[in-house]
Amino acid sequence: MAGSYPTNLLMTADTVGGVWTYALELVRALAPFGTQVALATMGAPLQEHQWAAARALPNLTIHESAYRLEWMDDPWDDVAAAGQWLLRLAEQVQPDLIHLNGMVHGSLPWRQPVVVVVHSCVLSWWRAVVGEEAPDSWDTYRRLVRQGLQAADVVVAPTQALLQEAEALYGPFQQATAIYNGRDPQEFASAATKEPFIFGMGRVWDEAKNLALLAKVAADLPWPVYLAGDARHPATGQTLALPNVQFLGPLSGPEVCKWLARAAIYALPAQYEPFGLSILEAALAGCALVVGDIPTLREVWDDAALYVPPTDALALRTALRKLIANETLQHKLARRATERAQQYTTRRMAQAYRALYQQLVTTTISTTL
Predict the structure, then answer these.
(1) Are 302 and 231 part of one and the same domain?
(2) Domain check: are 254 and 292 in the same one?
(3) How confident is the model at residue 241 (pLDDT cuts 50, 70, 90)?
């Protein structure tokens, strides 16, 4: 251990969502501090573009698996096996600190201080999207997540709103704090002249992202709507054809940046969004934002976005038409969003985590002397 700052971390990440982007951003930003990260991946094997991104980080070592994640169907045999694998990795890597981006493994018999990050959870998703408590079939999830979070030295969430809900669902926690996610502003740029179209990202059948509401109102808008995502439903195989909506298919990171640079408006009328990395990327690229009126997004964006109730198609159509018709308002909101986005940089995120890590390691050293 170098002084009181951990130089060797064991971190977990799933490969099938935004946690992968978060993890790589954090690893990259920790490199100037001399931090080496062993990243244990779960959920699915890495795709080639993910391997390419990982290989570009000299302070990162990947330990790959395909263990099912805690929120997947009947994952518990895999979750238990993943726990034993993680403990063996800890013996091999000898980390100074454990950073878990899944929740159930917080209760493993770790020998190091443990940070567990709540990126999202099934129970809060169920409340927001379905409008009721999760059914009894999620009781095993509920019990094991509670054990994992209560065992952690510190629980982190990307917003105060999500942290408060997690504490209500699973607490009390030993210690808790909010650390906002971040992106590197240098990766995103705005075109000199924005183009007259609305952009969105995500699967149109994802109830949390709620892009179906955007697709529903698209026919009544004077601007076209472009959606980064597949038009084919993964379960039914049905290909959607919607008036005034063009599906772009899955886009690479550089392709997303190009579309955001051109788009005048970014819309995500989310019912559930614990932070919203795609919204942050749009703000950094100079888009005016129209987002769901939910506590997490209000906390992150304050007066730098237009908010619409996630179930109100008329409100979404009205907000978008208002922005389309008012170029001055477009520019004002885009400027506010870009300025607000400077609070959510990768550098700030890494500094906050570094301070937290240092506090934990210092405390551990003090108690063992």
Answers:
(1) yes
(2) yes
(3) confident
Tokens 């998703």 belong to 125
| Same domain as 353, residue 327 | no
The CA R_g of the chain, rounded to the nearest whole Å, is: 21
State the amino acid at position 84 in one-letter form.
Q
Q: How far is CA 184 from the centre of its chain?
A: 15
Write the pLDDT tens digit of every residue in 30-86.
999 999 999 999 999 999 999 999 999 999 999 999 999 999 999 999 999 999 999
Q: Is 170 left (phi over 0), alpha (psi -120 to 50) or beta?
A: alpha
Positive or negative torsion for Cα 241, 242, 248, 249: negative
The two three-digit tokens of residue 53, written as one number: 């991104």
Query: What is the span of the domain harbouring residue 176?
Result: 8-181+346-368
If 0-12 CB within 10 Å is exposed, 13-18 middle and 19+ buried, where does residue 135 land?
A: exposed
Distances (CA, A) of 244 to 67, 210, 220, 226, 292: 40, 17, 8, 9, 21
In a domain, 201, yes or no: yes
Residue 3: inside a domain: no
Rounded Cα distance between 201 and 229, Å, is 6
> Side chain identity at 248, as an amino acid letter?
L
Same domain flag for 209 and 132: no
| Rounded Cα distance, 294 and 270, in Å | 8
Helix (H) or strand (E) segment spanning residue 210? none
Based on the fold, state whether residues 314 and 271 are members of the same structural domain.
Answer: yes
Residue with tokens 């238990």: 80
Which residues share a beta bridge with 5?
2
What is the total residue count of the chain? 369
